[in-house]
Amino acid sequence: MRKPVMAGNWKMNKTRDEALEFIYAVSDKLPSSDKLDSIICAPAIILRDLVKRKGSALKIGAQNVHYAESGAFTGEISPAMLSTTGVDYVILGHSERRAYYNETDETVNLKIKACLNNELKPIVCCGESLEERENGSTHAVLERQITLAFEEIKPTDLANIIIAYEPIWAIGTGKVASAEMADEACGFIRSLIRKQYGAVYAEEIRILYGGSVSTKSVSELMAQPNIDGGLVGGASLKADSFIELCEKAI
Ligand code: 13P
């Protein structure tokens, strides 16, 4: 049995005051952490504040990290620095970072290793563009992304890694993938893990769907055998909506 996950990706939204207001509003209303991993991935500047005030049910994540330990990387944050904020998770390889900030399969792999070395749990994103979906290369894209991301990653590390399938055409568009389509892609990703690590690890790893998940679509998505949770942008920004997503995820 895989524990479900509901992860909010706030992207570049919320000032410190808005973020704290959210945290106080959800703190005693989320399902307990033995039933669900509920996670908010927030901008780096407010992570420490959120970790201090998050309550027992919520976990906090970052949205990016550098792979180097230190060095001349102006504006970047190292895994060790991030670790001192007390966050548990880090989103890696989000399609927005791939599109706007030169994130590649190779840097995602380096970042996964750096996170694992610093007790940070990666949420590794993958997913195809509309053009790739339409020309039938979805599986090839996912295979490339997953194979390169997991190069030299040990099987025993998989328990600390979450995968998020986020078709780019469904992100922020209101166009949620059908539950069957999302499940098929998550099942394919699971089969890639099976090929590389064997059936036991493939059954254990948690795979999320992301892309216009809402309080309306979440139950049907969660009912699919290969979908273990959601990575949610827009619908995670309001406290009521995030609480409802979490309740419906269990
Ligand atoms: P939306 O839920 O706003 O479509 O965003 C999805 C996403 O990119 C989460 O990482």
Can you tell me about this structure?
Helix 7 crosses helix 8. Helix 1 links the parallel strand 1 (5-9) and strand 2 (37-41). This protein starts with a strand and ends with a helix. The model has no long low-confidence stretch (mean pLDDT 97). By secondary structure, the protein is α/β, with parallel strands linked by helices. Strands 1-2-3-4-5-6-7-8 form an eight-stranded parallel β-barrel, surrounded by five helices. It has helices at 16-26, 47-53, 79-84, 95-100, 105-117, 130-134, 138-149, 179-197, 199-204, 218-222, 239-249; strands at 5-9, 37-41, 58-62, 89-92, 121-126, 162-165, 206-210, 229-232.
Radius of gyration: 17 Å
> How many strands, which pairing sense, and closed or not: the largest β-sheet?
8 strands, parallel, barrel
> Gap between N and C termini, in Å?
12 Å
Give the SSE order as H and E letters: EHEHEHEHHEHHEHHEHEH
Order of strands across the widest beta sheet? 1-2-3-4-5-6-7-8
What do the pLDDT scores average to? 97
Percent of residues in beta strands: 15-25%
Question: Which structural category do the helix and sheet elements fall into?
Answer: alpha/beta
Heterogens: 1,3-dihydroxyacetonephosphate
Shape: globular
Amount of helix: 40-55%
Spans where pLDDT lies below 50 across 5 or more residues: none
According to DSSP, the number of beta strands is 8
What is the tally of helical segments? 11
Describe the secondary structure blueprint for this structure.
Layout: E1 5-9, H1 16-26, E2 37-41, H2 47-53, E3 58-62, H3 79-84, E4 89-92, H4 95-100, H5 105-117, E5 121-126, H6 130-134, H7 138-149, E6 162-165, H8 179-197, H9 199-204, E7 206-210, H10 218-222, E8 229-232, H11 239-249
Parallel strand pairs: 1-2, 1-8, 2-3, 3-4, 4-5, 5-6, 6-7, 7-8
Bound molecules: 1,3-dihydroxyacetonephosphate.
